[in-house]
Amino acid sequence: MNHFDSIGGEMHAEQVPLSTIAQTVGTPVYVYSTATLQRHARVYKAGVAKAGPRTHVAFAVKANPNLAVLRVLANEGFGADVVSGGEMTRAMAAGIAAKDIVFSGVGKTRAELHQGLDAGIGQFNLELEEEGVVLAGIAAAKGLRAPAVLRVNPDVDAGTHDKISTGKKENKFGLPIDQALDIFNRLAPLEGLNLRGVAVHIGSQLSSLAPLEAAFERVGALVAQLRAAGHTITHVDLGGGLGVPYRKGEVMPSPDEFGEMVARVTAGWDVELQFEPGRAICANAGVLVTEVLWVKPGVVHPYVIVDAAMNDLSRVALYDAHHDFAAVRPSGETFVASVAGPVCESSDVFAKGREIDLVRGGDLAVLLSAGAYGATMASMYNSRPLVPEVLVSGDRFEVVAKRVSAEAMMGEEQVPAWLK
Ligand code: LLP
Question: How many C-beta neighbours within 10 Å does residue 134 have?
Fold first, then answer.
C-alpha cells in the first residue's frame, strides 16, 4: 500500500497534488511520501517480530540515503546497514546511533575500518579472512574489540536478475559457507575481534521466499556446527532482499509471510536477529515526476519523450527493470507507445511499446516505485543537473535535496594553470 492516489482526477502524494510540486520545484523531481515510509517500516518490523523480540532492523542506506528519509526511519527505530564511510557519516547525521549501524561491503578500506571503530558502530560484517585479521589488528591497537560476524555465501540461486544476485558461489560476496568453520576457528581467538555470528544476503528483489529459506537453513546448520566447535554464537544477520511489486496488481511475498518463514526456520537458534531491508521500505514510497516534452512519431510506436532520463533513474537501463508509467492527470484514454528520455543513448528508454495513459507534450507523468535505488544511483551524465528530491507529509512538502546546477557541477572542476 502507498499514498500516491488520485484525488479529483490528479495523482497526489498524500494530500499534495504532484502538479503543485512540479510547479514549485520543476521537473524531473523525486517525490517521497512520509506516511508510506512509516507504514512500510512498521509492517516490516511487525513481520519480522514474529520471529521473536530479539529482532533488529537496519535500513540498507544504499537504497535511499537521503538524510530526511533516513530521519523518518530513525524515528521508526531503524538502525542502518551501510557499505561505505560516506553512508556511515550520513546515517549518524540523520540521527541513527552508532551502535545501531552494521557495516557490510566487500571492499572496506582501512580508513573506513578506522572510522567504524572510532565511531563505535554495532557490527562489522566480514567478507574474507584477511579483512578480519586487519580489523582485529587495528582494533587491538586502539584497545578495542570489534564486534563482527562472518558473511557467508550459501551458494543459493536467488532467482532474481543476475546483476542483483549475491549468494551464488561465483558471486564476489561472502566467504564460501563450507570454509566458514575453519575461518571462524582462526579468527575467533584474535584479541581485537569479538566474532559472534554470521551474516547472509543472497540478492535483491526476491519474488519467492524459497531461496531465502534455503539460505537461512544453511546458516542454521552452520550456527549448530560453530557451536559444536565451541564458539559462542549470539548474532545472525539475515540481510535484505524482499521483493516489491513494480507492476500494478503484482503480488510479492509480504513482510508477514517473510516473518512467519523466518520464525519457523530460526526457531531454537537463540540469537539476536538482524535484518537489512532497503527496497521493501522505500521503493513504493517514491515516484519520479517528469514532464512530457514531446510525443515524437515513431516508425513502430510513437516515442513519449520525457524530461527524466537514464541518468536520473538508471534501473531500467541497468537491469531491464520495469517501472509503471502513468499520467498525473489521466484522461482515461490510452495508447501504445515507448517512453524515452533525452540522453544520447539507445538504452535511455523507460518503456518499449507499452499500453500507457495517453499523454501530450506539456503533460506531467510519473515513473512509479522509484523510491529505492533511484536518486541515489543518479549521475550527471550529459551534464544534466542532479535531480532534486522532495518529501511530503500530509499537506506539507519540502525540498530535501536541491537540484544541483550546472554551475555547481563545474565548481568542482578546474582547468590546469598551464592551459590558462
Ligand atoms: N544488505 C546487503 C548486504 C545488500 O547488499 C543489500 C543490497 C541489502 C541489504 C538491501 O537489499 P534490498 O532489501 O534493497 O533488496 N541497485 C539494484 C539493487 C542493488 C542491491 C544491492 N544490495 C536495483 O536497483 O535493483
Answer: 16
- The H or E element containing residue 212 is helix 210-228
pTM: 0.97
Torsions phi, psi of 220, nearest 5? -60, -40
User: What is the gyration radius of the CA atoms in the chain, in angstroms?
Assistant: 23
Answer yes or no: do 245 and 291 share one domain.
no
Rounded to the nearest angstrom, the distance between the alpha carbon of 142 and the centre of ligand 1 is 32
Same domain, 246 and 331: no
Contacts of 56 (CB under 8 A, 6+ apart): 79, 100, 272, 273, 274, 275
What value does the mean pLDDT take over residues 52-64?
A: 97
Q: What is the pLDDT of residues 268-316, one digit of tens each?
A: 999 999 999 999 999 999 999 999 999 999 899 999 999 999 999 999 9
Among 111, 228, 299, 344, the active-site one is 344
Alpha carbon 185 to chain centroid, angstroms: 33
CATH of the domain at 345: 2.40.37.10
Segment holding 139, helix H or strand E: helix 129-141
Q: Establish if 415 belongs to a structural domain.
A: no
Residue 86 resides in a domain: yes
Whole-number Å distance between alpha carbons of 261 and 359: 44
257 and 385 within one domain: no
Structural contact between residues 280 and 242, judged by C-beta atoms closer than 8 angstroms: yes
The secondary structure of 224-273, three-state, reads: HHHHHCCCCCCEEECCCCECCCCCCCCCCCCHHHHHHHHHHHHCCCCCEE
- In the listed set 279, 294, 321, which residue is the last one of a domain according to the structure? 279
Which three cell numbers mark 340? 524515452
Q: Are 284 and 367 in contact (CB under 8 A)?
A: no
Q: Is the CB of 63 under 6 A from ligand 1?
A: yes
Active site residue 344: yes
Question: Cell numbers of 186, please?
Answer: 582462526
Ligand 1 touching residue 322 (CB < 6 A): no
Domain residue limits at 355: 4-32+283-410
Residue 244 amino acid letter: V
Confidence at residue 73, expressed as pLDDT on a 0 to 100 scale: 98
Residue 393 has pLDDT above 90, yes or no: yes
Ligand 1 atom closest to Cα of residue 240: 13
Task: Classify residue 419: in a domain, yes or no.
Answer: no
Site to probe by mutation for ligand 1, drawn from 64, 103, 279 as the one with most ligand atoms within 8 Å of Cβ, is 279
Are 348 and 262 contained in the same domain?
no
